[in-house]
Amino acid sequence: MTQPSNKRSVLSAVVNELAQANGVLARRPNTRPMPSRDTIVEIVEALRSVLFPGYFGDSELEADSVRYHLGNVLDEVRRKLREQIKRGLCFDCMTPGPTCDQCDARAEEITEFFLTRLPDVRRLLATDVQAAYEGDPAAKSPNETIYCYPGILAITNYRLAHELYALEAPLIPRIMTEAAHSITGIDIHPGATIGESFFIDHGTGVVIGETARLGKRVRLYQGVTLGAKSFPLDEHGNPIKGIDRHPKVEDDVIIYSGATILGPVTIGHGSIVGGNVWLTQSLPPDSRITQAQSVREDFNQGAGI
Length: 305
Prior knowledge:
Blueprint: H1 4-19, H2 37-51, H3 66-92, H4 101-116, H5 118-135, H6 142-148, H7 150-166, H8 172-184, E1 187-188, E2 193-194, E3 199-201, E4 207-208, E5 213-214, E6 219-221, E7 225-227, E8 248-249, E9 254-255, E10 260-262, E11 266-267, E12 272-273, E13 278-279, E14 288-289, H9 291-302
Parallel strand pairs: 1-4, 2-5, 3-6, 4-7, 5-8, 6-9, 7-10, 8-11, 9-12, 10-13, 12-14
């Protein structure tokens, strides 16, 4: 049996080795706190209660108390979000010391502009809710899609995160979309661009990459992937960042369950992509493609035909 002194010796050796962690796992030493994932989730839920008042948060709102509710919640959101954005900015900031006036000022600027975008976010979400109601015959009312549908939850997180992504707020947008991903199984990168009246039915397993561009009235079903084929490398063998590598999906496209579309291809407006299709080439407008067609075309390409 191991003696207590030996146990302490083993533990001390493990601690000493872990304390010397380096490379990709080592965080640059500083005295500034990291963004809080729990606080960011609280912020998103507070914003959900603002965007859908009466559905989330206080469900007993009266018409004459809505303005008070919105003002009170947004005042709290402003304070918390500003702090979290500042922490995210400081994470990448090379300025020494416990405080950074530049990050503080930039966090305030991002927060204030983000708040001005909330009415437009709500307008877009209204079109998404209507698309969900009209696109699913099982939906009894738009209210049901707001309160119950995972697609609406994921899209709400995405639309909030996308605004912060466009403002170059670091870390926070990704935390927001990953929070929805963990709940719904829907993975939307905050950098993707998605037009109005977007509907994800069922949703589990949907993946939308960073540089994907979706037009208006696009409908996706479960298991759809809008991904990248591969990562081009620079002369040093490192992945080249910031280039288009995901599909562009034009207006009024439907993509059925299990379809995988890879690379910077274009799916023309009005097209329908069948279930389990594997696609690495563009489609002209008003196309119809099935799994059998995609397998045959992929085989012909691979054979050099």
